[in-house]
Amino acid sequence: MNRVFYRDLIEHDHVYTDSGDDEIGLMMRSSFKSGLCPICVCETSIYQHIPEDQVPPPEPYGHYVIMQPVMLVCGSCGWWQSKAICLTKSHPSLPKFKGANSEWAYSYHPVIEQVDITSNKVAIADIRQHLLKNWEDRKLISAGKAELLVESLLKEHLKCDVFSSTANVNKPDGGIDLFVAHDNGEVKAAVQVKRRITKDVEPVTEVRNFVGALAIENIQKGIFVTTAERYSSVARDIPEKLNSRLELELISGNELFDILKCFTKPDDLIIPPYVKADMMWKDNCGNSLKLEEILNV
């Protein structure tokens, strides 16, 4: 499953002059005229920010200019580009200005990258950003990436070092995926991670197996993490039944999402300097939309 990520913002200066020294900028300009995306050649949508009425300047400054940002957005590949139109207005007491409106000197577009979150090569930072808005897609990431995701989140949640139980060792994990360590390297707890594709409820069987692994390794605390929404009632009873023999913490998928939200800051919108995140935009039908709605972020 591909997700579009915005990596940077590219500025094109005075493209409207047709100087020919900015081929990408000229391509962008032509796509505004054709309505086709320059990346995938699909139909695009045009959105305009309608500026609020500005207070006319006092005479004798009768003519003044306001800037109307316009965005072209491709619903297929996620590409967008922007420009601004300079609208020249006149003081109400003066005749209307007869000069033509013109495109602004600068246009912008983002560098975008399509990332397959099901791939083992995808960065954990990208997975975290994607799952922050699409938590249901946790079922699509690989078991290995689910383990790395939990490792990265527990490091921040517990403020401890967390590392793989099989790091640099070519052997089975023995029912333990991760270790949590103190600053001095002493193991504080063991972690088991279960990525569930079809199960919404984590049954008791794997939890019991994990308790057995803790006993064999003589580890006094365990953390069982599942991507399933919740644990069965029998599984939830196990920590209390263990009494003081060992400590067991159960983290469900819903609780893991809470940790993700707590420690993952949403990416900032990459937008042109003349665009503000709280601007409202109009589509061709006159519908009002927020910026994040038209950029699908």
Description:
26% of the residues lie in helices and 30% in strands. It has 297 residues and is α+β, with helices and mostly antiparallel strands. It has 2 domains: 2-116 and 269-295, no CATH class; 124-263, Trna Endonuclease, Chain: A, domain 1, CATH 3.40.1350.10. The strands form 5 sheets. Strands 7-8-9-11-13 form a 5-stranded mixed sheet, sandwiched between helices. Helix 3 packs across helix 6 (253-263) and helix 4 runs parallel beside helix 5 (233-241).
Features:
alpha+beta, single chain, 7 helices, 297 residues, Trna Endonuclease, Chain: A, domain 1, 26% helix, five-stranded mixed sheet
Mean pLDDT: 85
- Please work out how many helical segments DSSP would assign: 7
Structural class of the helix and strand makeup? alpha+beta
- Measured by DSSP, the beta-strand proportion falls in 25-35%
Tell me, briefly, the overall form.
elongated
Query: Tally of extended strands?
Result: 15
SSE order, one letter for each helix or strand = EHEEEEEHHEEEEHEEHEHEEH
Radius of gyration: 27 Å
Low-confidence stretches: none
Q: Strand sequence of the main sheet, in spatial order?
A: 7-8-9-11-13
Tally of discrete structural domains: 2
Distance between the termini: 16 Å
Helix content: 25-40%
The largest sheet is: 5 strands, mixed
